[in-house]
Design brief:
The chain is of the alpha+beta class.
């Protein structure tokens, strides 16, 4: 989940959508779409390129659409994540807080047979994130058709001492996030995708780059996976690549609605946590 400078027409839309004094500004006042895919280089052999996912940002929503017709709806005003699966006739919803709680419980259940869970780091214990520009001739704008931007993409590396690093490429031709948008994505990514022990993770590194670059869209990110390396230049890696980004007139209402007739089911995470906790209780009881 990613974003730079808009076309003049889109800028006019932004002015028209400014909130009245006293109102809370929506994270994404100017709607836009992004098409991206993941590249998995963590399994050995040739990297595997995933399917293209279309993301639509608008108002207080982010919607990710997949080729199979399924979509994930992130409602930032309600801090809620909804997964819609029309082919299966089902959907599920979880709040950000509930999602984070389930992730912590899963780690605790899985730690029964391994090592005790480390004490969560406090905000004062977290190492500082450093961002530096990598001058490697990253090349022209990959989204240069947006406004005909001539500036090249910028390659940045966010890292912490003796910890993870994240390579991020930003494009001057792509839509740019508002400060509210940067904050909303950081809240979502830390709750749903971030670490559970308070340590600095990829979500924190990406948020630092976004803030430093004034809400710039990350058109490519790359990070190392596994414990052997903190650099993605060599070894196993995970990557996301944006191939298209453009402003749109409005966010279609149907994208954020759950179709009638779908059956609400538990989320896969709830099912896994329930199973893991049952297994952990059995293992714990067997050691008495």
């Amino acid at each position: 989940m990613t974003t730079s400078r808009l076309l003049p027409a889109a800028a006019l839309l932004a002015v028209a959508s400014l909130p009245a004094v006293g109102q809370v500004r929506e994270p994404f006042p100017v709607p836009f779409t992004v098409e991206q895919h993941a590249v998995d280089g963590s399994l050995g052999g040739a990297p595997i390129t995933g399917e293209t996912v279309r993301e639509t940002y608008g108002g207080s929503f982010l919607v990710s659409e997949r080729a199979d017709g399924g979509r994930t709806i992130v409602d930032f005003s309600r801090r809620e994540l909804t997964e819609v699966r029309p082919k299966e006739g089902t959907y599920w919803s979880l709040s950000f807080g509930r999602f984070a709680e389930l992730r912590r419980r899963l780690e605790e259940a899985e730690a029964i047979e391994t090592a005790p869970k480390q004490k969560a780091l406090g905000s004062n214990d977290r190492p500082a994130v450093r961002v530096e520009e990598v001058r490697d001739g990253s090349g022209p704008s990959v989204l240069g058709t947006l406004g005909g931007a001539e500036l090249p993409t910028k390659h940045l590396r966010a890292s912490v001492e003796a910890g993870p690093s994240l390579d991020v490429w930003v494009d001057p031709a792509a839509p740019r996030l508002t400060p509210e948008g940067v904050a909303a994505l950081a809240d979502f990514e830390r709750s749903v995708l971030g670490t559970t022990d308070g340590s600095v993770g990829p979500a924190d590194l990406l948020q630092t780059v976004r803030s430093r670059e004034g809400g710039a869209l990350a058109v490519r990110t790359r990070r190392a996976v596994g414990r052997a390396s903190t650099s993605a230049e060599e070894g196993p890696f995970l990557e996301t690549v944006v191939t298209k980004a453009a402003p749109i007139a409005s966010l279609p209402a149907k994208l954020v609605a759950v179709p009638e007739g779908l059956r609400r089911v538990p989320s896969p995470l709830e099912v896994v946590v329930s199973w893991a906790e049952d297994e952990a209780a059995i293992r714990k009881g067997g050691r008495r």
